[in-house]
Amino acid sequence: MIITMKQDVTDIEFSNLKKFFEDKGFLVKDISGAELKVIGIVGDTAKLDIEMIKCIPGVQNVTRIQASYKLASLAFHHEPTVIDVKGVKIGGGKFIVAAGPCSVETEEQIISVAKSVKASGSHLLRGGAFKPRTSPYSFQGLEAEGLDLLMKAREVTGLPIVTEIMSEDMIDRFVKDVDIIQVGARNMQNFHLLKALGRTNKPILLKRGPSATIEEWLMSAEYILAEGNPNVILCERGIRTFEKYTRNTLDLSSVLAVKQLSHLPVLVDPSHSAGRWDMVEDLSKAALAVGADGIIVEVHNDPERALCDGNQSLKPEKFDRMMKKLRLIAPIVDKEME
User: Fold this and answer.
1) Beta-bridge partner residues of 39
2) What is the pLDDT of residue 138?
3) What count of other Cβ atoms lies within 10 Å of the Cβ of residue 278?
4) Maximum CA pair distance of the chain?
5) DSSP labels for 87-110?
6) Gap between the Cα atoms of 221 and 155, Å rounded
7) Does one domain contain both 111 and 48?
8) Comparing C-alpha atoms, which of 25, 55, 54 is closest to residue 42?
9) CB 45 within 8 A of CB 1
10) Alpha carbon distances (Å) from 190 to 144, 202, 216
11) Which domain CATH number covers 39?
12) Residue 156: which H helix or E strand, with range?
């Protein structure tokens, strides 16, 4: 529910109204703009009498938010959210690139890739330390050692790091050492993990589940937002369909849908969507053209010998050529790409 106050509302009337709802157990958010004082009421507002609320001193209008997700809704937060990660701004007309290997393998590998993607203009370094795999016999990542190596690569290059968390017991370590905490597709509806991450103030990259609807995806973001963490970045990484030629089916319409429904920034993962390196460049161009706020791309210095997902990883020289092309396209579609 959104309540717009009258132009001449007093500070006392505004405070009294907030207290009225807080005393009833609702979460109250001040979402006032430059000209109007507005508050958002989060909770089960179905039984509230709108006509009664309109009679409260200072109230001009009351509007119910029909969407099941409230804090993620564009109706609740009219301006696009911009998330600042150590000077890298995600959202608000910027187009950012996170690049790096699917999995951290060795110190030499991650530092080599980090240097190359930075030289090509990547804004963030991605790399998996903990790797959720379909088979229990597949490489599961270097785990804590992988985090240590990512931190070394950040120290060498200055690139903020993005890596995936698997469980609540690692939150303290991730909050201390990671710049953007990724929630993978398999954990999109791990609600205990989402709520725990919501009690941090770290930027969270929330990947869409392989069979999740857009509403379910936004509801997962709501779990994080409802706990007080406003720093949520969505990531479309392809959904499961009947098609088997590609690893997943990239749903570019979801970017447009999110932009119509939510204020949260949204990235696209062309690597996991296609599962093929030869499609990554064109899918990245499409993501830029359709209005995504950035991409997260897999780059490996020796993909033929990669321990994980080498077939969808770009070599550094191919990534460099792709970045040059993206910079040419960005101004045409009204995006800034530094």
Assistant:
1) 3, 30
2) 63
3) 11
4) 69
5) TEEESTTB-EEEEE-SB---HHHH
6) 31
7) no
8) 25
9) yes
10) 21, 18, 12
11) 3.30.70.1140
12) helix 144-157
CA distance 220 to 165: 16
Structure tokens at 55: 């009679």
Low-confidence residues of the chain: pLDDT under 70: 131-141
Q: Is residue 19 part of a domain?
A: yes
Reading the block at residue 251, the tokens are 């749903």
C-alpha distances out from residue 282 to 183, 274, 312, Å = 25, 11, 13
Whether 29 maps to a domain, the answer reads yes
Same domain, 146 and 288: yes
Q: At what angle do helices 277-290 and 253-261 cross, to 10 degrees?
A: 30
Regarding whether 227 and 167 lie in a shared domain, the answer is yes
Tokens at 217, concatenated: 């995806």
Domain that holds residue 89: 83-333
pLDDT at 30 (0 to 100): 84
Residues 118/159, Cβ–Cβ less than 8 Å = yes
Q: Distance between CA atoms of 176 and 37, rounded to whole angstroms?
A: 36
Q: Are residues 100 and 205 in the same domain?
A: yes
**Does 197 share its domain with 279?**
yes
| 124 in Cβ contact with 162 (< 8 Å) | yes
Looking at the structure, do residues 135 and 250 belong to the same domain, yes or no? yes
Query: Which of the 8 DSSP states describes residue 76?
Result: T
Task: Fill in the amino acid letter for 81.
Answer: T
Q: Alpha-carbon distance 284 to 190, whole Å? A: 28
Structure tokens at 152: 């070394």
- Kind plus residue range of the DSSP H or E element containing 21: helix 11-23
Residue 7: its pLDDT value, please?
A: 87
Q: In the chain, how many domains are there?
A: 2
- Whether 77 maps to a domain, the answer reads no
Q: Which two tokens stand for residue 315?
A: 């070599």
Cα-based distances in Å from 261 to 4, 73, 181, 251: 20, 6, 24, 16
70 assigned to some structural domain: no
